[in-house]
Prior knowledge:
- About 35% of the residues lie in helices and about 15% in strands.
- By secondary structure, it is α+β, with helices and mostly antiparallel strands.
- The strands form six sheets. The chain has a seven-stranded mixed beta sheet with strand order 1-10-9-8-6-2-3, sandwiched between helices.
- The longest helix is centred in the middle third of the chain and has 36 residues, at about 275-310.
- It starts with 17 loop residues before the first helix and ends with a strand.
Amino acid sequence: MISGQNSPRENPGEEEYILEAQLRAYVRRNLYPFHMPGHKRKLAPAPGLPYDWDLTEVEGVDDLHDAEGILKEAMDRTARLFGAYKTWYLVGGSTVGILAAVRCAARAGSEIIAARNCHKSVLHAAELLNLRVHWVYPSFNDTYGIYGSVSPAHVQELLARYPDTCAVVITSPTYEGVLSDIASIAGICHRAGVPLIADEAHGAHLSFMGEGPDDLPRRPLQSAVSCGADLVIQSAHKTLPSLTQTAFLHWNGSFFTQREISRQLNVFETSSPSYPLMASLDGCTGILKSHGREMFEAYRRNLAHLGRRLIALKKLRVLGHGNAAAQDLADPSFYALDPGKILISGGTALTGAALSDILRTQYHIETEMHSGSNVLAMTTVCDPAEAFDLLANALLSIDARLSAAPAAGNEFLTGNVAGAEGAPSPEKASADGTAYRLPEKEECVCTIGEALDEPAQELPAEEAEGRVCAEYVYCYPPGIPILVPGERILPEHRSVLARLSCSGCRIHHSFAREGQDIFFVTKRKF
């Protein structure tokens, strides 16, 4: 088992944990807390929790929603590190930042352009504001069955077609690590007088990655902050050393005022933010400032080492790594790839669900996600070198077994591995690489908000075809909807859902129904 950490910090410097030190200094004043929280710093709700500096907005520890003291200083430190005009700490994940950003840009009843592979929080903002969403479809890569980059030309075309657009919302990088040309898209948006909102939830580390991890012709990895996006939302907890639920909102343009951004965050974010979470964000900033260069240099070496080892794969394919790297990096559907996302494809030999189960039960590796023929393993600067060898050894071992196995009927191939929970049966196993490809001829009959305000009913799938969807239907992770309220249900949607279900994905509906092929549709026939 791996117990070490990929961190150079034996004796952390005084600049690494400034906010935590300030919170502890307040506690040492020994003022009795006749205020929240209810544990009174006397009783730990569970062993190991940092309850002794879990405070509320009392004098001396600042107020996130009106920061003038230690929290303002902490956020200013982070803004300087990331190169933003101003940074806000988020304790509700990227979700709260996206909701606030869209609300800053779009008035109720207006129009936005959004990537069709956007996170559901963008759709929830559209729902709340009754926005009309014009979809920009990223390119689709058939080899891996994933969405690629958003074309700047497509954004320009949509802006010309919909001149009343209030904002463009792009997800870059995607869950699988695919980046779009944000600099070009930002330029197009700005020439049209429209702000660009970048959902960079999976890219908080990009500012520190620099060149690729090897000698392959990779584009330099750049954050949307340096590429000119106006509001950039990052989940620190996804790819940096910070606690779950922590995120940043970076202000980087002239389309919004600081006052309006703060006002919208006040609407969507809790009025009782967690001080341990905010200290986590400041501590993350301190670690990156003090040790970021050496940590990311080690990370790039580890990724390069992994890529060299994966060259030996014959059956499995890893996006942007190993023997697939040169072809993937030259693929026109990918503008750039984040080498830290390890997307493993079993192709027609192995479903993602089966591969995930094999890695868990036989190699003691828990992966992030599986979908279609793919499994996603996420890496960060906090993974020690031996973790990369653990993954490489497992993949090479599985690949060797696949190469030696019969072409059909083998239990190893179908995923019926002893002890593997939820493995698909042989007759249902499918490694269809196009499982997640959505129909691009969708018909948006009404806005998301209008569809959800309509009286609705449940119908069997056969009867629901042609009707207007009144719910979100998606796989989670990653949470990209296959059907959005207001869209007409097409046979192609049912085909996508069937392929995803057969490949081991669990289909979620807004109105939970286990094991039933039923849709929630508007009663009114549009």
